[in-house]
Amino acid sequence: MRAARYYDRGDIRIEDITEPEVVPGTVGIDVAWCGICGTDLHEYAEGPIFIPPAGHPQPISKESAPITLGHEMSGVVYAVGAGLDDIAVGDHVVVEPYILHDDVDTGPDSHDYHLSEDMNFIGLGGCGGGLGEKITVKRRWVHKISSNIPLDQAALIEPLSVGYHAVERSGAASGATALITGAGPIGLLTAAVCKAKGITTIISEPSSLRRNKAVEAGVGDHIVDPVADDVVARVRDINGGRGADVGFECTSVQPALDTLLDALKPTGVLVVVSIWSHPGSVDMQKLVLKEIDMRGTIAYVNSHPATIELVEQGKVDLAPFITGRIGLDHLIDAGFDTLINRNETAVKILVSPSGAGL
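== Putative 2,3-butanediol dehydrogenase ==
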């Protein structure tokens, strides 16, 4: 089968590799679509980060570069390993792409398995990836979805789960007001979850194309241009003189973090969602004098079932966020290059590894 293989920074190759074996307890999936994630872009431009460099195997997968990329995937089950009777060939599925030690509690009451030692992600730390035509995944990490959800949209359930977990971390509930800095994929999908939960959304984004996408997708109650507008003043005007109840930092850009500290109300909650590849700074006096609660958030934990339910119930429409569909042969020129050098022109670019979806 064909797959996109990460060798090193700036070195991704489309290669023929052996199809994965479906062993007991695993599910074989024909990958329909896989999204290109911001993490993939960081690996390509600045990595390896999550990807174990050649000669330095990941402690759980025992793999190192080259590895198959891709962790935002949807597909159709083509084989079921021995010992499984709750999933069938033909089921539509998405993957919660974790690589964890076998002794980690991943039961329904766990709230921290995503923080366990040596945690990594399928498609970054090994174990195959969604940028290959097929993948085998342990049953625990395979989630069935309704066949009514188009498989291209289903590939966005993984990043939508990131937004879902971030909103959970914030503690915000219906009636709250949220300021979201950045209308990239994660910012927009976090806003979508907020809207589904009855939270008023204010989105700050300098790109006119991305501001338009926020309007088109219907996830921003108020859209602000931080270059032309005073974001803090706009937030207070919108929220009756108060600052925002909660803020989501989705850019890894220092001015956005600074804006959130100013725009939040006293006792507000600031959630850092983006992955920072460089140190940031915090004005500790503002944090202290406003009693701001600053929280990090990474990925998701038992978030997929509730996220899938939002989509199946029609509370989140994922279609507007898809801005491109490509095959493996155009992964770099039409995918990575666009998202790195012209990122204001695209939100989510999906890849059909087999080309069948094109």
